[in-house]
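A.,

Following up on our hallway conversation. Structure tokens first:
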């Protein structure tokens, strides 16, 4: 029988968890390194792909063959060129290159090997992951031979894990999940009552995480090296290696007040010391940003910090002491300790997989997680572009019309009508937009799909088109544009139905051996 599996496909680290016979989510260790988290880094050479920390060993000798932070590329039409050692436009990519979905499929294939019989899984994505990136994640799973039960937002998975903990009924209320990883920052506010998790709202920054802190430490090292020797480090050549050293220093500063390291530079080795205070000073700007988003999330929910009963920490970067201190200042109480920041997301995904496969649960599993319930929300405004007459400008303008509001409970279905503005119009553009703010201006929205609806006949202006958006619990959209008078429709599901493209992508990697 297929196992009940949850996967945290992270920017920096990934993890796979399985629901054990007693209903406890167990994060599985890698078979080769016996670690519960696997670096989301791969090394490619010919037909061989190495996934995990071992891939990092190749950084010095063959850095171009090492691919990391693929998740940040999931929404882009790019491919990693081994020859160039960077992401390039997909159209310009030569043979020896890999799409973000392909690279992610290698990571998923590796994780799948930590246990047997993985055929289905719940996979997690950041709350603010764009539609296209969600679809690419589904593609990656397909290529790895995993059927996705559902995609679930990372902070929501962590909340789900929290709700399943024994005795949690006694400490329920409004819970804030603060997830700071290597590349992204997500905060989600939810309400947990009797193991029912209701997501209220999420905020975040796709470009804020531990990597930014590594860069700040590298700047400090470089500055100090120059002060001592008069020369800067050569960051063109060995930048990735230096960033690895910077990361080690950062980790050490989470437990010590200062750290000294011998740095090899153009003027020979020099011992450089960095203190925790210097580090905290260097990341001050990022801390301000985190604080601002935290406050925005609470304000946006219509609540006050004092009404929130617990803050749950998720993600490796929450181990940095100044992060907890900042949270404590805003929330007026320290964050909850005791929840494993590396494992909560994968564990929560496994619990959610169990909830979605209730028929295959045994009695003990049902007893352990059966009461957990989850309601998530749509994290974007989903809209369409419409034309209207602007009496002030005296011309037609294109603007964004919101169809589904942000924070609408999922699954959601909304219908709105739009009308033609010309006589005898041949058809309309069916555009689908996504935005984090409530935008009318087309410049500020992401156009995620464009199609046409041709009318079968001619009619005077004012012809009605019904626009229906359905947003399922995986965060995947189904859209219909219907010409009311003729019933003719344009329909699109923003799902990985680009079967041809996917087949081609799969054929390119079929022969690859994953270690
Ligand atoms: P992601 O969700 O992006 O895959 P993780 O939640 O695994 O990432 O967090 C990875 C980040 O956490 C990295 O930037 C790593 O340097 C950082 N990190 C892990 N442990 C520590 C620590 N003890 N002190 C500071 N940062 C840490
Ligand atoms: Mg993460």
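Then the amino acids I'd put at each of the 515 positions:
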């Amino acid at each position: 029988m297929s196992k009940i599996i949850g996967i945290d496909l992270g920017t920096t680290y990934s993890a796979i968890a399985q629901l054990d016979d007693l209903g406890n989510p167990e994060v599985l260790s890698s078979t080769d390194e016996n670690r519960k988290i696997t670096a989301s880094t791969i090394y490619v050479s010919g037909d061989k792909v190495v996934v995990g920390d071992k891939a990092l060993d190749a950084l010095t000798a063959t850095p171009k063959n090492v691919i990391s932070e693929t998740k940040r590329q999931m929404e882009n039409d790019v491919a990693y060129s081994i020859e160039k050692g960077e992401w390039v436009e997909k159209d310009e990519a030569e043979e020896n290159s890999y799409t973000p979905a392909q690279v992610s499929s290698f990571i998923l294939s590796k994780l799948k090997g930590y246990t047997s019989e993985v055929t289905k899984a719940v996979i997690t994505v950041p709350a603010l992951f764009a539609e296209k990136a969600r679809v690419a994640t589904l593609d990656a799973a397909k290529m790895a031979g995993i059927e996705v039960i559902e995609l679930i937002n990372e902070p929501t998975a962590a909340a789900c894990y929290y709700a399943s903990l024994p005795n949690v009924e006694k400490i329920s209320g409004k819970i804030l999940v603060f997830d700071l990883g290597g590349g992204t920052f997500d905060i989600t506010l939810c309400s947990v009552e009797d193991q029912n998790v209701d997501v209220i709202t999420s905020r975040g920054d796709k470009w804020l995480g531990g990597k930014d802190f590594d860069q700040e430490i590298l700047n400090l090292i470089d500055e100090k090296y120059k002060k001592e020797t008069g020369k800067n480090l050569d960051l063109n050549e060995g930048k990735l290696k230096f960033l690895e050293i910077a990361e080690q220093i950062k980790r050490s500063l989470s437990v010590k007040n200062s750290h000294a390291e011998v740095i090899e530079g153009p003027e020979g080795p020099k011992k450089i010391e960095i203190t925790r205070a210097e580090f905290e000073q260097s990341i001050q700007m990022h801390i301000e940003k985190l604080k601002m988003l935290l406050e925005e999330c609470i304000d946006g929910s219509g609540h006050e910090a004092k009404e929130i009963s617990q803050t749950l920490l998720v993600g490796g970067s929450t181990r940095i002491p100044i992060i907890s201190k900042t949270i404590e200042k805003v929330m007026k109480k320290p964050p909850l300790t005791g929840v494993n920041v590396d494992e909560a997301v994968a564990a929560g995904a496994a619990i959610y997989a169990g909830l979605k496969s209730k028929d295959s649960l045994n009695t003990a599993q049902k007893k352990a997680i059966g009461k957990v319930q989850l309601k998530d929300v749509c994290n974007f405004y989903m809209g369409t572009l419409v034309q209207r007459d602007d009496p002030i400008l005296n011309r037609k303008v294109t603007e964004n019309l919101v169809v589904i509001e942000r924070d609408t409970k999922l699954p959601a279905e909304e219908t709105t009508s739009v009308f033609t503005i010309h006589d005898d119009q041949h058809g309309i553009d069916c555009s689908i937009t996504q935005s984090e703010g409530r935008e009318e201006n087309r410049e500020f929205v992401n156009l995620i799909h464009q199609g046409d609806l041709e009318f079968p006949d001619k009619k005077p202006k004012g012809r009605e088109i019904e626009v229906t958006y359905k947003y399922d619990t995986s965060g995947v959209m189904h859209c219909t544009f219907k010409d009311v008078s003729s019933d003719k429709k344009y329909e699109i599901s923003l799902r990985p139905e680009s079967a041809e493209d996917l087949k081609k992508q799969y054929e390119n990697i079929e022969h690859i051996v994953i270690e």
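The longest helix spans residues 210-229. Curious whether your intuition agrees with the design.

B.
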